[in-house]
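QUALITY CONTROL LOG
STEP: pairwise intake check
CHECKER ROLE: data steward
CRITERIA: each record must contain a sequence immediately followed by its structure tokens, with no blank fields

ENTRY 1 OF 2
RESULT FIELD BELOW
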Amino acid sequence: MTETDTFRCPHCSQRHPIGTLYCPINGLPIELPDAAPALPGLPEIRKLNRWWLIGGAVLAGAILCLAGIVTLSILRARVNPNITPTVLVILPSQANNTPAPNVTLVVATPQPGVTPLHEPWAACPDASYLSRLRIGDTAEVSSNPPLANRVRSQPATDAEVVGSIQPGEDALVLDGPACANGWVWWKVRSNETGLEGWTAEGDSSNYWLAPVSP
């Protein structure tokens, strides 16, 4: 056996065959320094294990980051399918004021050339439009279409008709609002005839009463 086939043992200082892991004299494990040149047939076990650990840690970190991104995307995209939309008709000036996340806004057609005295408001929860009137306002019967407003004894479509207010006629708002038949009702008194009773402000398509500037 030549010297190229052996190495000097750090424990007993004798030469042993390459690949010997334990000293045959005292039984101690043989560990050569990392800086020592590699000997033929002796695997660099410690260096190999160290690179495997580093690679495994990097791979595990990448997997955890990817899983976190996917989970966050799923949570952001989740929606509640059990929410039932509610339809609320509003004026064009109110189209950007969404009252609730599950409310669908439908823009009503106001009377041309009429500027509300107040901010339109939900006078009746079951009405298909927002009211533009308040108690004390002066309202004019719309001329578009040119139809008279029926005035009733009570705020309901089946109540007794006590008279009519003609297109272009002014009336003072005395009381209200009252909610019935999906309409907003106001108690008014005609400034021309003195007729007094309840009349509807409009329907889902048009306003029949328009506020008049003082």
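ENTRY 2 OF 2
RESULT FIELD BELOW
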Amino acid sequence: MIKKLAVAVLCTTLGTTLYARDDISKSQGFIGLELGYATVQGDVGGFYPGIIERDYEGSDIEYGIRLGAQKEDWRSTLSFNYFDSVEDGAAQNYEKYLASFDYFVLNGNESALKPYIGVNVGYINYESNDNIDMSGFIYGAQAGIVFSAAENIDIDLMYRYSLSNATQDDRDASLDHVGSIVFGVNYIF
């Protein structure tokens, strides 16, 4: 199922890129920073004294950078995010690489506020102090709003939810999902 979804996303991305080749040359580029509050959740199976299976969850600040292109009705972004949490003595962190595509819902709108919905796909590497080190595919959806603060500055507030297939077989561990509330600032060039 995951492989079929990955192939479908790749084909859609390539097809859209070929179809929109002329539009991309007329788009605006941007570079930005992200700061968010993220929650990561998964489970660790196996035998632990008094526990058959245990879930792990951590919440903390996530930060990152983004690079992308946008037009009046769409935006595509490449981003890198880093998360590092120590909660109740459990340390965990991840590096997440995402490609996302957003569609501005009210694209004919001359307003400074532009709501959007979008999809994301990428790769995540998760580690914890429980000797868990796993990597895998990540995919999901996002929704938010962009505010044009100045001619070349956009402020972005979004919620991003991504599922993962990352597993570590020798520990019977898996990463389930990552949810983030993200604040971003983009410089448009």
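INTAKE CHECK: passed for both entries
DESCRIPTIVE NOTE, ENTRY 2: The beta strands are 28-44, 54-70, 74-87, 90-104, 113-128, 132-150, 153-164, 167-168, 173-188.
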